[in-house]
Design a protein that fits this description.
This protein is an alpha+beta fold. It is built from 21 helices and 43 strands.
Length: 978
Amino acid sequence: MQGKHGAAMLACLVALVLWLGCGGGDLRSQRLSSDAVPLLEVAGAELPVRLRQARVETMVVGGVAQTTVELEFHNPNRRVLEGQLAFPLRDGQRITGFALDIDGRMRAAVPVEKAKGRQVFEAIARQGVDPALLEQTAGNHFRLRIFPIPAAGSRRVRLVYSETLAREGDHYRLPVSLAFARGAAELSWDMRVDGAASAPRIAGTLAGTLSGRMGPHGWDARFTRRDFSGQGSLELRIPRAKGPRSHVQRIDDQLYFLAELPVEDAPVARTPPKAVMLLWDSSGSARGRDHEAELAVLDRYLRTAGDIEVSLVRLRDVAEPAVRYPVRQGDWSSLREELRATIYDGASRLGAWRPQAGIDEYLLVSDGVDNYGPSAEFPELQPGQRLFALSGAGPHADGRRLRDWAEARGGRAILFDASGVEAAARDLLSEQVRLQAIEMEGGEEWIAPSATPQDGLLRVAGRLTVPVAELRVSYRAPDGRLRRIPIPVDGTQAALSGPVGQLWAGYWVDRWSRDRAANAGRIRSLGQRFGLVTGETSLMVLETVEDYVEHEIAPPVELRAAYEQAWASRVRDRERSQRERLDEVAIAFGERREWWNRDWPKGRPPAPPKLERRRGEADRVTDGYAAADAAAAPVAAAPSPPPAPASVTQSMPEGNLALARERSTLESVAVTGAAESVQVTLQPWQPDSPYARRLRAAPADRIYALYLDERDEHAASTAFYLDVADILFEKGQRGLALRVLSNLAELDLENRHILRVLAYRLMQAREPALALEQFRRVRGMAEEEPQSFRDLGLAQAEAGDPQAAIESLYEVVRRDWDARFDGVKMIALTELNAIVANAGKPLDTHAIDPRLLGNLPLDLRAVLTWDSDNSDMDLWVTDPNGEKCFYSHPETYQGGRLSDDFTGGYGPEEFALRVAKPGKYRVEANFFGDRQSLVTGATTLQLAFITRFGTPREQRQIVTLRLKEAKETVLVGEFEVR
C-alpha cells in the first residue's frame, strides 16, 4: 500500500456528495456551507491530481432529489497513486450507487455483505491489486477505498445519491455550491424537475448562465463551463405543488410509491416543564458540535420556562452523577458557565443514564454518536415523561439515531446550527404535528420515516398491490384535533427511474437499524436487493470475472454470463467440506497428544546440531542452542524504572490481564505446586516519549491536566491515549484512566485494529463487560480472521460464560481460514479443552467433534499476540539447557514446543512444555518485520506467562509492550522452576 496519495481525488468526490446541500439553506436540516466541504491535498505526489471533467445529473421528484456525479481525474505523476477517505453525509442524504471505470468502461459496484466486502478488499490488496469499496462505518459516516490512479493516466468515478430538500413556504430550496469543480477543464450539470407545472426561480451570480425550458415531463436545465474557476453562486427555488402528492416508480414487476403531505397547521406553544434532566454529551466526538448555538437554544428554552429545576448529567464513557441547578426567573448563568467549562473527552456511551422520578422531560444534547457499551441500551422513560434531542453537530450528527430515540419517547429531534437557533427554539417550545395512523387498501409494507414533519412534510413510502389505490394519513394537530387526509396513489404512469424505490428501502433499513443486531439479515437482504450502503452492506467494484468468482460475489449485469459459466466449473471443484477440515484438525490434535504423552528427557542434551538457514533470512538466528552465547548476548530491554515493592501472588483466570504498568519494577509471582514451585519474573515496559516522561514526573492530581495540554498535538495518536491511560492507572487515577483509554473508540470509526487494542486494554483493566462489547464489534467487522473469535471466546470465559466461550473457540477450529492463519486452530482447541475441563460444571459439547475433546495440561505456557496485521513477530524461549525454542527450531530436547510461525497475521504464537525441568526459562519477543502502517505507531505485543495451564491451579501474568523497529528484540520475562 502506498499511503493516501489519492486523497484529493476522493475529496472531490466527497465534495460532490455534499454539493446540493452547500451554500446555506434550512440549517435545521444541516445544509452545509462550502467551507465545510472536506477537501484534502494529495500527500507525497510531485504534481497535484487534476480534475479533468465533471458531469452531474440531478432529478427532482417532489421534495426529493437524486443526483448522479461522474468525475474524471488525471494523474500527471510518474507513480501510481491511491487513497482512502472517511466522510459524513448530512441527515437525509443516502448513497444509492457507485461505479468505477475498468478498461475504459464504467463498471457498476455491486452490493456485498459488509464484512465480506472488507475481507475481499484486504485480500486483494495483499496481492498488490486493489478493488474499490464504499462502506458505511457508523451513523451516517462513510469510507471510500480506491486504487489505482494510474501514472500519467486517468480514472473515472461515478456516485449516485438521493436527498430530501428543504421546504420554504410555497417552494423547495436547492442551493448549489460549485466550488468542488474548481479547476475542472470541463463541467456540465443537467437537471430535471419531474412533473413541474412551472419553471423554478433562479438566483445567484451564475443564474444568467443556466438555460432551462419546460418540456413534456417537467422542467429541464443545463449548465456548462470550461476551465471553471469555482467562483459564483446558484440557487433554485422549485415550486411546490399544493396539497398532498404521490410519486410512483416501477422496479421490475413492483410498484413503489412515495406520498408527501404538506403540513400547514400552525404550531401551538406548549406548557414548559417544571423539572428537566439535561443530558449533555461531553465525549471526545462532541468537541465538534457548535456549543454556542446549542447554548443559545437552551437560553431561549430556560428563559421561557422561568422557574425550573435542571439536573445536569454529563455523558462520556460513563454517565456522571446528576448535579442540580435551580433556575429562577430564567437566570441560568451558573449552569451556562458550567457547560462552557466542559472538558470533552472519552468515548460516547449515550444510554448509560437512568430515568428519575419527578422529571418531566429530558433534553439530550449530542451528536448521536454512540460507540461504547452495550448497543440498544438507551433507557425507556417513566409514564408521562418525554425526550427531546438537540444537536449542533452539522453533518457529523447521527440524525436517524437521535430521531428514533426522541420520537419513540414522545418528543422529536431538532438539528440546527448558528443561523437556525430561533427556529430550533420555536420547535422546542411548541407542540408540533404528530403522525397517528396510516391506512391503505391496495398497498402494503408502508412506512413513515418520521412521526413528525421533516422540512414541513409528512412522508410515507410503500408498495402498491393494485395499479390505483388511496392512502389515508391521520395526524394529531398542535391544537389536539385529529385530522385524516386521503392521498390518491396512481401507478398507471409509474416512472422507470428515480429515487422512490430506494427511498422506500432506505426507510426500512433505518427502522430496522434501531436494533441492528436483531435485524442484520433483513438489512443485508434489502441493502443487497436495492444496492444500498448500509450498516450491513457495502458497494464494491472488482476488476475481473475471476475476482467475482473467487470471492463468490455476484457481478454487475454485463459480466453475469461469464460469471455463471466460470461458476459452473467452480462448483465441480468445490472447496473442502467441513468434515475434511475437521479430519485435518483431528490428525494435528493426535500429533499433539503424541507429543504430550511422550516421556521427554530432562538431562543434559547432546551437542547441538547444525541447522540450515531459511532462504532469504540469513539475519535471523537459526542455532537452537545458546548455552554459551545467548545468555550473554545483549538484548534490548525497556528503560529501567525506579524501584518499587516486591512480589505479589495472584490467581488469574484466562484473559484476566494484570496491568504491567500498575507495577513499576520486575515482578515475581510464586506459583507453588505439589512437587515444585515456579517463579515468574516480568520485565515491565514503559514508553520513553517526551510527553510520557512529563506526565510520569507529575503529581497524580496534575496528570489529567497535562494530558489535556498535550492532547491537541497528539489527538490522532493511538499510542498517546494508551500511554496516558497506563500512567493514570499507575498513579491510581482509575476513572480518568478508563476515560482516556475509551477515546480509542472515537479515533477511527470501525477500525478493528484499534478496537482490538482497546478491548485488550479493557481486559487488562478488569472491565470484561466493556471489553466483550468491543470484541463483538471486532468479530462483526472481521469474521474472516480467527483471532476475532478467539479473543471473544477468551473474554467470554473470563466474564463467566464458559459455554459461549467454547462455542466461539470452536468457530476457530471448524472454519476454513486463509493460509496465513495456519496454527491458530490448535491453539484455540487447546484453550477450548482447558475451559471445558475447568468450568466447574458440565458444558454442552455435542456440537464438537469428539475426536477433538481432551484436556492436555501444561507446566509452562507462553502465548504471544500482537495488534498489527501483515506483521512478523517471533516468540523465543531459552530453557535451562541454553536451548532456544523459536521459528526454525520449534521443538527442544526436553520437549518444549513452539506453534507455527505467524509471518502475516496477529499471532498467536505459543510455547508449550508439559513437564518443566528446574531452572530458568528466558522469554523474548522479536520484531522481525511488517508490511503495513501500524495503528499505534508501533506494534503492541502481549505476552501471557501461564503456569499449571489447564488445571485448577492455573496462574497467569501478562506483559504489554510496544516495538517500533524491525530486528528489535526485548526480554519480556522469565519462568524459574525450582
